[in-house]
Amino acid sequence: MNTPASPSTPARRYGGVAIGFHWLLALMIIVSFGVGWYMSDLPMSPTRLKLFNWHKWAGVTILALSVLRLAWRLTHRPPADPAGPRWQQQAAHAMHWALYALFFLVPLAGWAYSSAAGFPVVWFGVLPLPDFVSPDKALADLMKERHAVLAWTLGALVVLHIAAALKHQFVDRDGLLDRMRFGRRPTSP
């Protein structure tokens, strides 16, 4: 029988809200990255403009969900680190905080790029958001490049994160993935 962890003892797995944030943001980031990559080489057309808007909507949504996810993470104790070398635990913590930073930096750089280029962000075509910066061609060029570099960095860290999770699952066989699965309970204490 699984008993809830006391405030002084962390649980062995993440709660439903943390798991929901994780998988929703993972899906949104992967789709947004794919759309951004695809649309960047399209010629100017109604399809490209539509994809740019969808990409911006996703970015603002990712930013808002990241604020909620970080607030949840700061107010809810995560599961204890799995047993393993100290360097591995430190690398995992560094990876997680780098991912959190990029959850904010990538959409903010995109928003700054859009504003500097003179294109307002209207969330889902309904809610106009304030310009992040004033229109400025040189700044737009710089922010476009920064947005791309940050997005590729996030993509690389996501790939490393997935590789580490798969290593834990199939090489170490330590049940690490059970901590982030919906409806799964650890089979041993």
Describe the protein's architecture and organization.
The protein is elongated and about 50 Å long. The chain has one domain: Fumarate Reductase Cytochrome B subunit. It is 65% helix and 2% strand. The chain has 189 residues and is an all-alpha fold. It has 4 helices and 2 strands, in the order αααββα. A hairpin with a 3-residue loop joins strand 1 and strand 2. A two-stranded antiparallel ribbon has the order 1-2. Helix 3 runs antiparallel to helix 4.
Write the layout of secondary structure elements.
Blueprint lengths: L15 H25 L5 H30 L10 H31 L5 E2 L3 E2 L8 H36 L17
Antiparallel strand pairs: 1-2
Alpha carbon gap, first and last residue: 10 Å
Largest sheet: 2 strands, antiparallel
How much strand content do the residues show? under 5%
- Based on secondary structure, the structural category is mainly alpha
In helices, the fraction of residues equals: 55-70%
- Shape annotation: elongated
Structural descriptors:
189 residues, mainly alpha, Fumarate Reductase Cytochrome B subunit, two-stranded antiparallel ribbon, 4 helices, 2 strands, 65% helix
Question: Quick recap of the structure?
Answer:
Helices cover 65% and strands 2% of the residues.
